[in-house]
Design brief:
The complex is a heterodimer of chains A (about 160) and B (about 290). By secondary structure, chain A is an alpha+beta fold. Chain A has two domains: about 5-80, Beta-grasp domain (Ubiquitin-like (UB roll)); about 90-155, [2Fe-2S]-binding domain (DNA polymerase, domain 1), CATH 1.10.150.120. In chain A, about 35% of the residues lie in helices and about 15% in strands. Chain B has three domains: about 5-55, Uridine Diphospho-n-acetylenolpyruvylglucosamine Reductase, domain 2; about 65-175, Uridine Diphospho-n-acetylenolpyruvylglucosamine Reductase, domain 3 (2-Layer Sandwich); about 180-285, Enolase-like, domain 1 (2-Layer Sandwich). In chain B, about 35% of the residues lie in helices and about 25% in strands. The chains are: A alpha+beta (about 160), B alpha+beta (about 290). The complex binds flavin-adenine dinucleotide (FAD) and FE2/S2 (inorganic) cluster (2 copies).
Chain lengths: ~160, ~290
């Protein structure tokens, strides 16, 4: 079983590695690159703790082969803050108490980035459907929704002032 | 959970993928979104020796009307379909279904071709294809073939696709005046596979008489199922509440559900009756707009 050489950018940094065909992207990110902000919850594509952005779109990295990410641009939770300043979603989760244990939070934030890119001003219902593939066992979701609403407002303000 | 060992091949063109598949034989499997196949490989329900990645093939992601047909490329993702203006405005049945399929991150990868080619009666797109009388276009070693949907599903995870065939396009008769469709499924929780699902597509003539009708059922039989007896009741008639009630009953009689974690056989027979009636009414409302 031949190894494959893959190259991609992760959080803006170019990375080249040799991987087995069967290596899952989440293991590549956590174990080969030591970026442990991306979590493994269910390992069965259900919980969303492993959500990352691949070419700008949210995917579940436990259900993606690392070898298929060759040539891709990947963003993980470690890559969302700009030079020490929280991303509006990180700030939203902080301000609105959008987390308790925090296990789901990286995945929630990565999913929400894609959601707000596609729909900058979502309704509450659209937010709830938008994060339907991300489970949280602590918060009851209400504060997560508020966090995303705060971020949406903040990001739109920025859009209009730029 | 890690899949069993396999060799990975990235396809660079349709012809190269087909040739590679011929060369590697039955132990090779195509992967498009990987959202059905990879979970099965992680559970070791599937242990292919070779994976041929077709997700990067160019020119197979599109949604367009051409002549009398709506054409959807086999590699079009469910997210692309969900956000597509043509489907939103003229074919709302797709929105009904995709909204209830998996979740946005899975839909970012999962393709319509994979959803149909998988041959899983629990997947949502097959019922829509049955209701809308789709034709499946595939490319294989012997060139292109065109398979009417009623000849496509052969059994549990079995389809008319032969090893090496790539589902390249779905063709659906273009939406006509006075036509409409609707889909709904009952699910235990958001993103779950259907406990029971029903797709309806109707075409009325100017007097409101039902000219054509298609009804497809999700996860109520070993393979995706057409409710033929129900269609016959409606075809050529003015659709009334009585006829709709009759078709609901036929659905609960003719489906072939098993009792499982999603519900007992009796429960599934009861809810398919209700969903069928609601979808007939919804499709009728859309057709009359
Ligand atoms: C958590 C979760 C929940 C889900 N819930 C639902 C749901 O509620 N409803 C639903 O319908 N689906 C659901 N799915 C499945 C999802 O929609 C899949 O993406 C889809 O069914 C398969 O598409 P794919 O592109 O990922 O196919 P793959 O997984 O890549 O392939 C599936 C099969 O089809 C074959 N194949 C793929 N593409 C082609 C092609 N173009 N030509 C020939 N053969 C091909 C492959 O060889 C394989 O056998 C769910 C998936 C997950 C992970
Ligand atoms: S770990 Fe990937 S979805 Fe749960
Ligand atoms: S904060 Fe604990 S799982 Fe969401």
């Amino acid at each position: 079983m031949a190894k494959h050489t893959i190259s991609m950018t992760i959080n803006g940094q170019p990375v080249t590695a040799e991987v087995d065909s069967r290596l899952l992207l989440v293991h590549f990110i956590r174990e080969n690159l030591s970026l442990t902000g991306t979590h493994i919850g269910c390992d069965t594509s259900n919980c969303g703790a492993c959500t990352i952005l691949l070419d700008g779109k949210s995917i579940k990295s436990c259900t993606y082969l690392a070898v298929r990410a060759d040539g891709a641009e990947i963003t993980t939770i470690e890559g969302v803050a700009a030079e020490g300043t929280n991303h509006p979603l990180q700030q939203g989760f902080h301000d609105q108490h959008g987390l308790h244990c925090g296990f789901c939070t990286p995945g929630m934030i990565m999913r929400s980035i894609d959601l707000l890119n596609n729909n900058p001003n979502p309704t509450e219902e659209e937010i709830r459907w938008g994060i339907s593939g991300n489970l949280c066992r602590c918060t009851g979701y209400n504060n997560i929704v508020k966090a995303i609403q705060q971020a949406a407002e903040e990001m739109q303000k920025k859009e209009t002032t730029v | 959970m890690i899949p069993a060992k396999f060799n990975y091949h990235k396809a660079t063109s349709l012809q190269q993928a087909i040739a590679l598949s011929q060369e590697l034989g039955e132990e090779a499997k195509y992967m498009s979104g990987g959202q059905s196949l990879l979970p099965m490989m992680k559970l070791r329900f599937a242990t292919p020796e070779h994976i041929i990645d077709i997700s990067k093939l160019e020119g197979l992601s599109y949604i367009k009307e051409e002549g009398d047909l709506l054409k959807i490329g086999g590699l079009t993702t469910q997210s692309e379909m969900e956000h597509n203006e043509l489907l939103k405005s003229k074919y709302p049945i797709f929105g009904d279904a995709i909204w209830l399929t998996a979740d946005p991150s899975v839909r970012n990868c999962g393709t319509i071709g994979g959803n149909i080619a998988h041959g899983d009666a629990a997947n949502d797109q097959p019922a829509l294809m049955i209701a809308m009388r789709a034709t499946i276009i595939a490319q294989g070693a012997d060139g292109e073939k065109s398979i009417p949907i009623d000849e496509f599903f052969h059994g549990f995870y079995m389809t008319a696709l032969e090893p090496g065939d790539i589902l390249t396009e779905i063709q659906i008769p273009k939406a006509k005046k006075n036509s409409g469709g609707a889909y709904h499924k009952v699910e235990r929780k958001v993103g779950d596979y259907a406990t029971a699902g029903v797709a309806v597509h109707l075409e009325l003539d100017d007097d409101g008489v039902c000219r054509e009708v298609g009804i497809g059922l999700t996860n109520l039989s070993p393979m995706p199922m057409r409710l033929e007896r129900g269609e016959e009741v409606l075809r050529g008639k003015k659709i009334t509440d009585e006829l709709i009630a009759q078709v609901g009953l036929i659905a609960s009689e003719d489906c072939e559900p098993d009792s499982d974690l999603r519900g007992s056989e009796a429960y599934k027979r009861a809810i398919v009756n209700t969903i069928t009636k609601r979808m007939l009414n919804k499709a009728l409302e859309r057709a009359r707009k």
